[in-house]
């Protein structure tokens, strides 16, 4: 009886001519052992998007450059002196559209990320300079798990498609660094036919 | 039998009378198609009406084929012989005639695939005056598509559903949608009995999480096994596809699918002309007809070009990850190797290529 069962299982598990695999995971492992390359590329879809190669947690991939997307960069075109020299309380705000909702005020203020002495650069927690194009390094200081997941591709989105070379969006492509959370909203769809069927 | 096998462009239902043929290959019991593991025979067989004209056939065969083609034939002959009918209607009749007698897509040669795609494009042009782009691109080498869905990230916005409907020219009248987003209660696990897939309130709702289902492109697809006419099969790159022109609408596949991955066209699908996605694939988002089954194809028209499916691109939360399972450096492989992944109803042995994971 059990021999017969084994025989039946043995026969049905041979599903693919590519080899005798018990599961798709086994098949993936075997078939990717001699993986070479694919004929499609993500490069044509990048179009106008300028990218830079980054190297994070042993992963190499492309991200879109950010500096040119910032309106009014370079910041030193206005901020010629240090932030310390700016009057502390002013009625008219220059960056009126920026409201900081990122952690609480005990944890974060403008100069936690912005370098008060050189507004064209960001600053790490220990005071080293971070280029705006590499702002993910800033986020990665606190959001370590997200940073790791993003470097592998589990967090975030691909830029144009699955084909190599890998191009991923960077943190600020989805999150507003000053208000990184997402508000609740209404779903974009409601299926009236399903509703009708239920009634 | 041998003569028939040489000429055939379709599969016959094996009711057990041909047992001896199953000895040569794998355990699925068929020596072609079915389990998706067989390569179509490469011997060249005529397609279209050439299957009948200039072919030797016995009286019974001839009668059967004549009867089947009577409707189309009569129409085509009357149009093509008429002096009143214009060139366009003659061409239309010619296309209908050739489409009627084409073979199963799975058995077509490169040229035959291209020919049917050209006919469908021309036919659309003649009927609507609009030009569309249709591809018959085969699976890429070294590619096996896989998908990962992050349950912690999905917020239930349903942008994916809308993108899918628009990309894949799904019937607007019956509001068909391949993707379902299920609103599940925290602490109850995947409880589909108490989940809601048609909610309308601000999301994410307190105490709920969201998960999406669609066709999982199983590596061992039960839907493919039950199709009596082999109108659905697993491609080399793992996509489970349907030949809408070969489907007879029996809906066995829908009954066999444990994931509600398939949809049926109860009426003629309606898409406003301005909303038709004209970037099409024969096995993907080309216009369907009444009475055929359709489903998610991981947007074959996009994925085989190197792009992500429309749902992946539309997702604002990054909950959807798509890629090549055979590429050890792909993001999908990183997810499978570094996150705790699981699949829906894994114990059924359907081997979905669609994994769920959490942050």
UniProtKB/TrEMBL annotation, chain B:
Keywords: 4Fe-4S, Iron, Iron-sulfur, Metal-binding. GO terms for molecular function: 4 iron, 4 sulfur cluster binding; metal ion binding. Residues 1-49 are annotated as: Disordered. Residues 15-25 have a biased composition (Polar residues). Residues 238-267 form the 4Fe-4S ferredoxin-type domain. Residues 38-48 have a biased composition (Basic and acidic residues). Pfam families: Fer4_11. This is Molybdopterin oxidoreductase. It comes from Sediminicola luteus.
């Amino acid at each position: 009886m059990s021999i017969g069962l084994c025989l039946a299982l043995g026969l049905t598990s041979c599903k693919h001519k590519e080899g005798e695999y018990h599961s798709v995971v086994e098949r993936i492992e075997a078939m990717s052992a001699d993986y070479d390359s694919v004929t499609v590329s993500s490069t044509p879809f990048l179009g106008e998007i300028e990218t830079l190669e980054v190297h994070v947690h042993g992963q190499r991939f492309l991200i879109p450059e950010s500096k040119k997307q910032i309106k009014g960069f370079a910041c030193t075109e206005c901020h010629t002196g240090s932030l310390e020299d700016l009057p502390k309380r002013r009625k008219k705000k220059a960056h009126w559209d920026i409201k900081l909702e990122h952690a609480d005020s005990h944890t974060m203020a403008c100069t936690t990320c912005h370098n008060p002495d050189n507004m064209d650069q960001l600053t790490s927690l220990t005071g080293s300079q971070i280029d705006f194009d590499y702002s993910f390094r800033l986020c990665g200081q606190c959001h370590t798990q997200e940073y790791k997941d993003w470097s592998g591709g589990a967090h975030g989105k691909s830029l144009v498609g699955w084909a190599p070379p890998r191009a991923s969006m960077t943190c600020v492509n989805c999150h507003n660094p000053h208000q990184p959370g997402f508000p609740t909203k209404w779903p974009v769809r409601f299926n009236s036919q399903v509703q009708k069927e239920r009634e | 039998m041998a003569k028939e096998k040489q000429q055939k462009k379709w599969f016959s239902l094996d009711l057990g009378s041909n047992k001896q043929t199953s000895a040569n290959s794998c355990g699925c019991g068929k020596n072609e198609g079915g389990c998706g593991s067989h390569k179509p025979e490469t011997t060249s067989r005529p397609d279209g009406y050439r299957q009948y004209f200039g072919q030797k056939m016995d009286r019974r065969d001839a009668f059967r084929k004549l009867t089947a083609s009577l409707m189309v034939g009569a129409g085509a002959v009357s149009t093509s012989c008429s002096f009143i009918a214009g060139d366009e209607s003659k061409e239309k009749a010619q296309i209908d005639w050739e489409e009627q007698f084409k073979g199963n897509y799975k058995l077509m040669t490169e040229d035959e695939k291209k020919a049917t795609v050209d006919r469908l494009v021309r036919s659309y042009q003649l009927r609507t005056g609009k030009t569309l782009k249709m591809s018959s691109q085969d699976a890429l080498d070294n590619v096996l598509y896989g998908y990962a869905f992050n349950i912690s990230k999905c917020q239930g916005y349903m942008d994916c559903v809308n993108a899918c409907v628009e990309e894949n020219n799904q019937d607007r009248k019956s509001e068909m949608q391949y993707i379902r987003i299920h609103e599940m209660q925290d602490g109850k696990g995947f409880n589909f009995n108490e989940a809601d897939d048609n909610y309308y309130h601000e999301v994410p709702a307190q105490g709920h999480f969201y998960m999406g289902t669609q066709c999982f492109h199983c590596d061992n697809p039960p839907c493919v096994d039950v199709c009596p006419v082999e109108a659905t099969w697993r491609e080399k790159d793992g996509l489970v596809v349907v030949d809408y022109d070969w489907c007879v609408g029996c809906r066995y596949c829908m009954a066999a699918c444990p994931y509600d991955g398939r949809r049926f066209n109860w009426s003629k699908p309606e898409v406003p002309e301005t909303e038709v996605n004209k970037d099409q694939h024969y096995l993907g988002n080309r216009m369907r007809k009444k009475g055929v089954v359709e489903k998610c194809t991981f947007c074959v028209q996009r994925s085989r070009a190197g792009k992500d499916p429309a749902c992946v691109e539309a997702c604002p939360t990054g909950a959807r990850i798509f890629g090549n399972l055979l590429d050890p450096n792909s993001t999908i492989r990183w997810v499978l190797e570094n996150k705790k992944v699981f699949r829906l109803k894994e114990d059924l042995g359907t081997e979905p290529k669609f994994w769920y994971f959490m942050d």
